[in-house]
Each structure stands twice: as C-alpha cells, then as structure tokens.
Design brief:
727 residues, alpha+beta, PH-domain like, Porin, 14-stranded antiparallel sheet, seven-stranded antiparallel sheet
C-alpha cells in the first residue's frame, strides 16, 4: 500500500493524512480510503480529489474509543452509532496512526471540557478589573491554557514512550534469551520494528518539548509582569479591608456606648430637649433595623390593601383556600366533640401490604395473535395479565382524592369550585401511570361496596348491570355535601401493537349546598408495546366539565405522548370559563403528578379581520398555585402491582359485605395470594358458568318471543277470518 504522504506523528491540531484500508462489507471486504485527521475529527474519502466536495464519513474523537485488534488492524467507535474497522499496511504504519489518534483525542477532550467551563472562568473576574487589566488578564489566561495543553501533550507522549519502551525491553530480553534457531530472524525483525516505533514516539515528544520551551521563553516576561500586578492589587485590597474592619469596630463601640447610656434607669427622666431627641433617634434606629424583615410580611396575600393596589380581587380564592384547609383540618375535631362516644371506638386499621407478585413468564403473542381486531372482553385471558382487583374496584379508585370534592363543596364561587372538580377529574388517572395489569371483568350482578364514612365521610357502591356489552353503575355519597355517580361502558380493541380502551358514559357530581350539577366524560387509554418492549400507558383526548346550573365550563386537553414533542410528558391543560365564554382560570400540569391553577387577569386574541390568521389566545395570569399533587406510592409498590395505599385495601376481606361483593371472588382471591394456576382454573370455571347462564337466558327470551308472536298471529287470524265477518 502506498501513501501520498508519510508524516511523522505531530502535535495535536496539525493535520495527519494517509491511505488506510477500511472494512466495507462481506462482499467487498477492505477497501482503500483516504483518511484525514484534523481538529479532533477523523474523516475519510474515496480519493484525495473528493476532499473538496464529498466527505464519506466523520467521527468525533472526543467521544470515541480506539482499540487495537492485531498487528495491523485497529477499530474506532463512538458507542455504536459509528464504527470504523481499519487496517494499515504494516505495524509501524498502524502505530503512527494510533499515536496521532490518541494525541488528537486527548486534545479534543480538553477542548470540550474548556468550552464547558469557559462560562464560569471569565465573568467572575472581569467586573473587578479595569479595561486594560481585563485584556491583560485575558491574555494571561489564554497563555496559561496553551501551556496546560502542551503539558498534557507531554504527559500523553510520556505514557506512550513508557508503553513502547516496555514492549521494546521485552523484545530485547527475548532476543537475548534466544540461541541460534530458526526464529532468530523473526525476533530480530520484531525488535527492529519496535525500535522504529520508539524512535517515532520519541521524536513526537521532542517536538512537543521544543514547542513548550519556545512558548515559555516567549511569554515568561509577560507572566512575571502579570503576576506582579496581581500581587500588588491583592496587597491594596488587603489594606482596604483592614481599614474597613477598623471603621466597623469603631462604629460598633460607639453604638454600644450610646445604647447603654440611654438604657440606664432613672437617668434624669426630666432631661432637656437634647436627651429627648436622642431617645427618639434611638427608637427610630431600632425601627429601621427591624425593617430588614419587613418585606417578608408585606408580600403576605392576606393583606387586602395589597390586592386592591394590584387592581384585582384575587384575595377571595386565597382566603377561601386557607379557610377550606383549616375547616377540613378542624372538622374531625368538631365531630369528635359532638359525639365523644366515637372516640372510644378506634378506626379500623387497614392493611398496607399484599403478597408480592409472582414472577411467571408467558408468551403473550401466542395468545394475542389470533385476537387482533376482537373485543377485549371476549378474549379468554389468563390471570398473568391481570391485577387482583375487579373493574368495580378500579372504578372506586376514582375516589382516591375525594378531598378535592370536599374542598369544592365548601367553595362559595362556582368558578373556583370548577377548578377543584376539574382537578378531581384529572386525578382519577394518576393511579394508572404504572398499572399495566388488566382488572378482572365483573360477573353479571357482581357488586362492590366501599364504606369510608368514619375515615373520609363517604360511601361508594358499584354494580355490574350488563354483561354484553359490559356496563357498570357507580354511586357515591358523602357527608361533606357531594354526590358522585357514573354509568360506564368500556369498549376496547386490540390493534396488534397497542391496546385501545374507550370509556363510554358520563360522570355526574352534585353539590348539595350550591345545587351545582357537573358532568364530564373520560378520555381514551392506550396501552403500548403489547407484543415487544416494556408496557406503558398513555391518556389522550379532551374533557369538557360542564356546570349545568350556572353554565360554567372547563375544557381540559390531555396531550398524547409524542417522541418529537418538546412539551413535558403526560401534559394536561385547561381553561375555566363562565357562561359567556370569558376565561377566569388556567389549569396546567400532568395527569400523573400535579395540577396548578392561575387566575386570568387579561386575555388577548388574534385579529378578527383575518389579516393575522389564526392566533392562539394569550392569557395574562398571576403566579400559579398548586391545586392537587399525587400521593407517593407505598414502599415496595413495584412488587405489589404498583397499587396505591387505597388500592391495597380494596380487596381486603371484610365482614358483612354482600355475597355478590368482589372481595368474595375466588379467582381474584387466589391470584392475590400468588396461586395463579388455581386462579386460572377458577377463572375459566366462572366464565364458563356465566356463558352457560347467558345462553339459558337467551333461550328463554327467544321462547318467550316465539310464544308471544304466535299468540299475536292467532289474534290477527281471528279478526281477519271471513267467516267471522258476519257475526
């Protein structure tokens, strides 16, 4: 292999060029390419003529790794995206490239680190020096960086010399140990090559040393002047600080003496005007000293004058929020005072753990490949894809953040109440972020009762009212002034790569005190990576929360996840408007973490004449405040199906529940206990029993329709018989 240029290793920053064989594919193998190493970048071309217009590839050495395969081969890779398998004509040529590449990589890494730290080095010193001193300091810093680079080059070369020197010593030792055999020629040739490598590396270090010495001689006088100026400036600063310390000490002693003189008891109480004025001055001084903490109190939102000066009436929401929180905290105390006998009955201690989820493996594709396009409720699924609660219990989890409705029931303003209701609608999805398991399909007539009157003041009841299509009814009532009800039907489709779940039905919330009636629907849920990859859940769509009493409306938008979006994941935005369409509050946050609200002070829209096109409405709002935040998961939740604290108690056995309660389902109980094989068998038995009962009901309904149709036909014949017309 020939080269147009055979340079010796040079200091980093200089260009290194040459022909190297590069691996292309298994058909063509290694092909000859022209490589150029410059400024930490290694580029290659098919020919030297292509350097002006076509680059076949470039790799940044700052993030690359350089490895040696054998005598002539070496590999350059930046972590998988780019990998060059190269081969030199001989070991000496390969070592020249390795030396040049390592030096270039060392410099590229230093340059990258300096560029990251450059913003922190200069601004801290520039404000304290004059213009002339700033240019001088910049020149010194530049020279120091250059010297530092040269020292690093010397260090790199020193390491290479040590490595090659050790290899040369080993070869010489082997040569000395040889007796005249057939291997003598090979060993002598190897020693010669290693001596050549050592000479090349030594030359590189000598060149680096020469450059370092030249640079040091050029800048030595400037460094001495700069260091002397810095030393003199430091001395002046020390003298100034010493003078300031003396003045401060003198003022402090004078102040203490005046304070002791004024604080002495019965010190000529009927003193003249001079003494009285001095006392007033001391009082004023004490007042102004206390003013250092005054700003902390001036910014308290409770000050009504502060809100008047800001030309807005926002104190209502803040004061009501504080009042609500206080009333919620004081309410249990009031209840206990009214009925002291309740204190003797302790609250039931709920469980905080369930058995850990077993680690069973199952091939999902073997089950799902024949189910594409079918209704999910008609697919026989093993419990491996379930979680040990039913769909009715999952509906009851919507009350995880019932305190939002408790606060909404205390609001005087319907628009503020709308903020809490909208946050409650969003909070229902926070329990699903890690919950990729499918809840059990309830049996027809199955119920679930959640009684939390003593702990939280509400009671909830769910029932499966239809089997095909599956439909459930949910009703919850609270002693704190609200009622929640919903009827829901879930339509689901398996699309091959993802599972789409479309909830159908309306949720109603009614508040007794204000008689406000709110309704909204649920958004679609998508389970991704059904076949390959890790399962993850996304919520997308839009929700309109409507107050049918006042006409207020809140439009919530759940942004779908996108790989190319710059917004935060799981983002939710919304605007609370009155019946006239005027915006009063802006809601923002994520459905898995928190929601915040901001009061709208002013809004502006695009031009109505169409010249400006479609423009987004701009809301000028006050500082956002937190409306809701997700509770942390219990310890060890990843081994307990990622259940929340409430979900862990939903399937806890309780006395006095109905025979149709979900807690009594044997397959669900067996799965919770980790007996999945028995749970699968029991699940199949229950589903087959339900299908048999359904077929029996359909036969009875068909026979009833047939008998009724035959009776109607007899009645028609009796009326239309000609023989009966004359009678």
């Amino acid at each position: 292999m020939s080269e147009a240029k055979t340079p010796t290793p040079t200091p980093p920053g200089d260009t290194y060029k040459g022909w190297v064989f590069k691996w292309t594919n298994y058909i063509k193998g290694y092909q000859r390419r022209w490589f150029v190493l410059s400024n930490g970048l290694l580029s290659y071309y098919r020919t030297q003529a292509e350097m002006g217009h076509t680059c076949r590839g470039t790799i940044n050495l700052a993030t690359a790794t350089i490895t040696v395969d054998d005598a002539c081969n070496f590999v350059i890779s930046n972590g998988g995206a780019q990998t060059y398998h190269l081969k030199a004509s001989c070991e000496v040529e390969r070592q020249r490239w390795i030396t040049a590449l390592e030096l270039a990589k060392a410099k590229a890494v230093r340059m990258q680190a300096e560029s990251d730290d450059s913003g922190d080095d200069f601004p801290s010193s520039s404000p304290r020096i004059t213009q002339g001193g700033g240019s001088q300091n910049s020149e010194v810093q530049s020279a120091l960086r250059t010297l530092s680079n040269k020292v690093e080059d010397l260090s790199t070369c020193n390491d290479l010399i040590s490595k090659h020197g050790s290899a040369l010593q080993r070869s010489l030792a082997e040569l000395d140990g040889l007796r005249l055999t057939g291997e003598a020629g090979d060993k002598i040739r190897q020693v010669t090559e290693r001596a050549t490598l050592f000479r090349i590396t030594s030359n590189a270090m000598i060149n680096a040393c020469r450059d370092f010495l030249t640079l040091a001689q050029t800048h030595s006088k400037r460094w001495q002047k700069a260091l002397q100026a810095e030393r003199e400036q430091r001395v002046r600063l020390e003298e100034t600080l010493e003078q300031l310390a003396k003045q401060h000490n003198h003022l402090e002693r004078a102040f203490r003496g005046a304070a002791q003189a004024n604080a002495s008891p019965d010190n000529k109480g009927a003193a003249g005007p001079g003494k009285g004025e001095a006392s007033d001055e001391d009082d004023d001084n004490e007042f102004f000293d206390a003013m250092e903490e005054a700003p902390e109190f001036i910014t308290v939102p409770a000050d009504p004058q502060f809100h008047k000066r800001s030309s807005s009436n926002i104190s209502g929401l803040n004061s009501e929020l504080c009042a609500d929180d206080q009333s919620l905290n004081e309410e249990p105390l009031a209840m206990n005072q009214e009925s002291p006998s309740q204190e003797l009955v302790p609250l039931k201690k709920r469980r905080t753990r369930i058995p850990d989820k077993p680690n069973y493996s199952l091939n999902l594709w073997s089950i799902m490949k024949n189910c594409i396009g079918k209704e999910l409720s008609k697919i026989p699924m093993p419990v491996n894809f379930n979680e040990p609660i039913s769909m009715l219990q999952r509906l009851s989890e919507d009350l995880e953040y019932h305190e939002l409705l408790d606060k909404a029931a205390k609001c005087q303003n319907s628009l503020e109440q709308m903020c809490y209701v909208a946050a409650f609608a969003v909070s229902a999805y926070s329990t699903t972020v890690y919950r990729t398991g499918k809840p059990f399909n309830p049996l027809l007539g199955e119920t679930y009762e959640l009684d939390r009157k003593r702990e939280s003041g509400y009671r909830s009841l769910c029932e499966q009212v239809s089997h095909h299509p599956p439909a459930a009814a949910h009703h919850a009532i609270s002693d704190r002034g609200w009622t929640l009800r919903q009827e829901i039907t879930v339509a689901s489709k398996f699309r091959g790569k993802y599972l789409s779940i479309m909830p159908l039905g309306t949720i109603h919330a009614v508040f007794e005190k204000s008689n406000n009636h709110y309704t909204w629907k649920k958004v679609n849920t998508t389970v991704h990576n059904i076949i390959v990859g890790k399962l993850w859940i996304d919520q997308s769509g839009e929700i309109d929360v409507v107050n049918h009493t006042t006409g207020d409306r809140c439009h919530l938008k759940f942004a779908p996840y996108s790989y190319f979006s710059r917004d935060v994941a799981r983002k939710v935005t919304g605007v609370v408007m009155d019946k006239d369409g005027k915006a009063h509050y802006v809601l923002s946050g994520t459905w898995d973490e928190k929601m915040e609200f901001s009061k709208v002070m002013q809004s502006s829209r695009g031009g109505e004449n169409g010249t400006e096109g479609k423009q987004k409405t701009v809301y000028q709002t006050l500082k956002a405040r937190e409306l809701w935040r997700r509770n942390p998961l219990p310890d060890g939740a990843e081994t307990m199906y990622y259940f929340t604290a409430l979900a862990l108690t939903l399937n806890e056995p309780e006395e006095g529940v109905a025979p149709t309660d979900s807690r009594r389902r044997p397959d669900q109980r067996l799965m919770e206990e980790g007996r999945w094989d028995e749970a699968n068998a029991e699940k199949q038995r229950l589903e087959e029993k339900q299908r048999t009962a359904r077929r029996e009901r359909e036969r009875e309904a068909a026979s009833q329709r047939t008998s009724s149709q035959s009776e109607e036909a007899v009645d028609e014949d009796s009326v239309t018989d000609p023989s009966l017309k004359g009678k």
